[in-house]
Design goal:
Layout: H1 2-8, H2 16-24, H3 40-51, E1 56-60, E2 65-68, H4 90-93, H5 98-111, E3 115-121, E4 124-126, E5 129-131, E6 134-143, E7 149-158, H6 160-182, E8 186-191, E9 196-200, H7 202-208, H8 212-215, H9 220-223, H10 232-242, E10 246-257, E11 260-274, E12 280-289, H11 291-295, H12 297-302, H13 304-313, E13 316-322, E14 327-330, H14 332-337, H15 348-353, H16 360-373, E15 375-383, E16 389-400, E17 406-415, H17 417-439, E18 443-448, E19 453-456, H18 458-464, H19 468-474, H20 482-498, E20 502-509, E21 515-526, E22 532-541, H21 543-605, H22 612-643, E23 649-652, H23 653-663, H24 665-670, E24 674-677, E25 682-685, H25 687-703, E26 712-721, E27 735-743, H26 775-785, E28 789-795, E29 799-807
Helix pairs in contact: 21-22, 22-26, 23-25, 25-26
Pfam families: HATPase_c, HisKA, PAS_3, PAS_4
InterPro entries: HATPase_C_sf (IPR036890), HATPase_dom (IPR003594), His_kinase_dom (IPR005467), HisK_dim/P_dom (IPR003661), HisK_dim/P_sf (IPR036097), PAC (IPR001610), PAS (IPR000014), PAS-assoc_C (IPR000700)
Domain PAS: 429-500
């Protein structure tokens, strides 16, 4: 026992962190048992594994117990498997990839042959989640003391960064190829030391006078042998070996086109292309045919004087700088840019002194490049005499003497202070936009003028669970519900093509796999010329509103069906009412007319033969018949006010009152009554109904006049908006005509102000005041027919007031 303890504390020796973990683990609790029982082959394999600086892993025994070294340890990350899987059953330790590696292990153990894979994607659990990890690895058989395969030894390297870098490089190369193909300039790329043509666009083929078949996949100097004697091999080799850019302006080049050797003048450049390791493996060339420009130089020279005059009148300041004499000749506009009087000579020293000290190195570098290329271009700050800062843009060209020595620089200077200020504001504005967008709960996104989405705010990544790289790789349509994608894409293409605003409802997949409805909007941003520069869009979660709308639509359908049933029932009741009106007007009045006719005959022939008691009974019967006729007439009037066709006409109420006053002339004279009326409104009303309304109200005032004083009926009107009357029943923003009819009759208690409009309601006995209790009910029904509102108020012994509110527009 003492010997076992001694051995277990010394094996394995060394091995760094993993050696220590192996020594300290209680292996007696595992299927391998105590270290003293381990076969020598396992010990030897572990010694090799732990001493290796290359990542290694070992599965041993029937249960494939896990071992690994310090070099492998970083691949497990943090919050993952380390150190738990040491001594663990292989299947239990690697459940997420066992379906992939299990068959490989079994293959090696059964065949005894090693397997090797390069840059294979095998995701593992590490850093608290499943991560995509790429590996280059080898599985080799590990044998026990009897030479029987008892395990698998793994030698591996994680190549995730390399694979992702290569993928990124491939995407860039595809993007570069697309840009080259669509570029308006002549562009081509050459690969390797032989400068094999890899990519070439139509503009380049047109310039070269070749077809793609003639140049693609061939060394360019082989496909265009006329270039060899013109020094192009030297130029290409220099760029390929040094990485130095070469550019030329208006260079005469002889090219064999259409069976002839043409001389073309070309502006072009050669730039080195680098691979993922930062090594030069090709060249890209960009060129423009400027033959016509060069041939026009003579014409340009002849108009140089006119051009200088035009430049003086423009925003460009011009100068000529004679290099050897350091003499500067400046235009009036250049003096204005430097804020110096025109009669003062601007010296070269003044020119340099005004440049901001921090920008002098940039200016000097630009001059160095200009001496090589012949073109001068840079932007710099100027310090004005009062210490204000201006920005200038300088463009120039170097002219050489017959010996090829730089002689002078001819150039222009433009004040770009406003442009730079606007640019800085734009950059600040864009930064604010992104900061604001990332704080919003809505999804904010932008797209270029062609509709390609190029920005998403943080809300999009949190909602989808995608990283920017994942969303860029999968594309935004991956988030849209499959059933919505085709229509979504069609609507987006339509907006991008027509420039119309984009508005679309669709479902987005959330990181948990659920879908929620979104309302997406996008509007185009235009430049000064009306061209679309970009699209700015947002997507707002409307899932809850959508569910509410669906439920509301269901309820509307239910209510619509109920309403249809009610309308049908109402039509039936209306028909019944019309039948009742017919019965009332014909069948009920016919026997009543006979009773009154026979009563009149009895009065003429037999009345004197009746006893006093009989006469009294006869008079009561005659009065009852008259009341019956009045009741039927009133019921018919009420019925007609309910079912008559409503045809509104613009009516002068003053004229209507005169007509009613004429009809009631006898009653007014008998009651010694007076109607006093202001200038009233002209309103759209149903004329015969409104005449009946006035007749009923005037008759009501005459019926309930006070004894001992003449009756006065006062009518007035005014127009106001609904909210000015302080009545909740009126629409606040609709105009009403308020008609008031007031009398000085016997009045009534205000507690009956609503009851008096009910059918058959009477506040007095029929012995005292005749009537059926229908007149005011008809008045209210007519006001209802006009979408109006009527109120009544009274004071016993003082009179009654009726207020009618009718809208001007029905």
């Amino acid at each position: 026992m003492t010997e076992q303890q001694s051995t277990s504390t010394t094996f394995p020796s060394g091995g760094g962190e993993m050696g220590k973990l192996i020594r300290n683990k209680n292996w007696a609790e595992t299927s391998l048992g105590h270290q003293d029982t381990w076969p020598q082959s396992l010990r030897t394999t572990l010694d090799i594994l732990l001493s290796s600086k290359f990542p290694k892993f070992l599965w041993w025994g029937p249960e494939l117990i896990c071992f690994y070294n310090d070099a492998y340890r970083p691949s497990l990350g943090s919050e993952g498997k380390h150190p738990h899987i040491l001594g663990m059953n292989g299947r239990e330790a690697w459940p997420e990839i066992w379906d992939t590696i299990g068959p490989l292990i079994e293959q090696v153990m059964q065949s005894g042959e090693s397997v090797w894979f390069e840059d294979s994607l095998i995701p593992i659990f590490r850093n608290g989640k499943i991560e995509d990890v790429y590996w280059t690895f080898s599985y080799s058989p590990a044998k026990n003391d009897e030479g029987i395969i008892s395990g698998v030894l793994v030698t591996c390297t994680e190549t995730t960064q390399k694979v992702l870098l290569n993928q990124k490089l491939e995407r860039k190369e595809r993007k570069l190829s697309l840009i080259i193909k669509q570029a308006p300039a002549a562009i081509a790329t050459f690969r390797g030391k032989e400068f094999v043509t890899e990519i070439v666009n139509e503009k380049a083929l047109e310039l070269w006078g070749r077809t793609e078949h003639e140049v693609a996949g061939r060394p360019i100097l082989e496909a265009m042998p006329e270039l060899v004697n013109q020094g192009f091999r030297t130029l290409l080799e220099d760029v390929y070996l040094t990485g130095n850019r070469f550019s030329a302006s208006e260079l005469p080049v002889q090219i064999f086109r259409d069976g002839e050797l043409d001389t073309l003048y070309i502006n072009f450049s050669f730039e080195a292309l680098y691979n993922a390791d930062g090594e030069i493996d090709g060249i890209i060339t960009i060129g423009h045919d400027v033959t016509q420009q060069v041939l026009s130089h003579k014409e340009i020279k002849a108009s140089e004087e006119k051009l200088n005059l035009a430049l003086d009148a423009s925003e460009l300041g011009t100068f000529e700088f004679y290099i050897e004499e350091k003499k500067l000749v400046a235009s009036r506009r250049l003096h204005e840019i430097y804020e110096l009087p025109f009669d003062e000579q601007i010296t070269h020293q003044d020119f340099l002194a005004a440049i901001h000290p921090d920008d002098l190195p940039l200016r000097n570098k630009a001059h160095e490049i200009a001496l090589k290329t012949g073109k001068l271009s840079y932007r710099a700050r100027l310090i004005m005499p009062d210490n204000r800062i201006k920005w200038k843009e300088l463009q120039g060209k170097i002219f050489y003497n017959d010996q090829g020595i730089p002689e002078k620089i001819l150039g222009t200077v433009r004040d770009i202070t406003e442009e730079k200020t606007n640019q800085q504001k734009l950059e600040a504005s864009e930064q604010k936009f992104r900061l604001l967008a990332n704080t919003l709960p809505q999804h904010i996104w932008t797209a270029d003028s062609e509709g390609k989405l190029n920005y998403f705010n943080q809300s999009v990544y949190e909602y989808t669970g995608y990283s920017p790289a994942e969303l860029d790789s999968k594309g935004w349509l991956d988030v849209v519900h499959p059933d919505d994608r085709a229509e979504n894409l069609e609507a987006w293409i339509h907006s991008v093509t027509t420039g119309k605003d984009f508005l679309f409802e669709h479902r987005f997949r959330k990181h948990d796999g659920s879908y929620r409805w979104q309302l997406s909007r996008a509007i185009p941003q235009h430049d000064e010329d009306g061209n679309i520069q970009m699209w700015v869009g947002s997507s707002t979660d409307i899932h809850d509103q959508k569910k509410f709308t669906d439920e509301l639509e269901r309820l509307v359908i239910e209510r619509t069906n109920e309403l249809a049933a009610n309308v049908k029932e109402l039509a039936y009741m209306n028909k019944e009412l019309q039948s009742f009106a017919y019965i009332s007007s014909h069948d009920l009045q016919e026997p009543l007319r006979k009773i009154q006719a026979f009563s009149s005959l009895l009065v003429e022939t037999e009345y004197e033969n009746l006893s006093d008691h009989g006469k009294q009974l006869f008079d009561r019967m005659n009065n009852a018949a008259k009341r019956m006729k009045t009741l039927i007439d009133d019921l018919l009037a009420y019925s007609r006010s309910t079912i008559s066709e409503r045809k509104y006409e613009a009516t002068d109420l003053n004229q209507l009152i005169e007509e009613v006053q004429s009809e009631l002339k006898e009653e007014l004279t008998q009651a010694k009554a007076e109607i006093i009326s202001d200038k009233l409104c002209t309103l759209p009303v149903i004329p015969f109904q409104f005449r009946q309304l006035l007749q009923n109200l005037f008759s009501n005032s005459l019926k309930f006049s006070a004894e001992g004083r003449p009756t006065q009926i006062i009518i007035s009107s005014e127009k106001k908006m609904g909210d000015e009357f302080n009545l909740t029943r009126l629409s606040p923003r609709k105009q009403y005509c308020h008609i008031q009819i007031k009398d000085n009759g016997i009045g009534f208690e205000n507690e009956y102000s609503e009851r008096i409009f009910e059918l058959f309601q009477r506040l007095h006995g029929k012995e005292k005041f005749k009537g059926t209790g229908i007149g005011l009910a008809i008045v209210k029904k007519i006001v209802d027919n006009h979408n109006g509102y009527i109120t009544a108020k009274g004071e016993p012994g003082e009179g009654a007031t009726f207020d009618i509110y009718l809208p001007e527009n029905k």
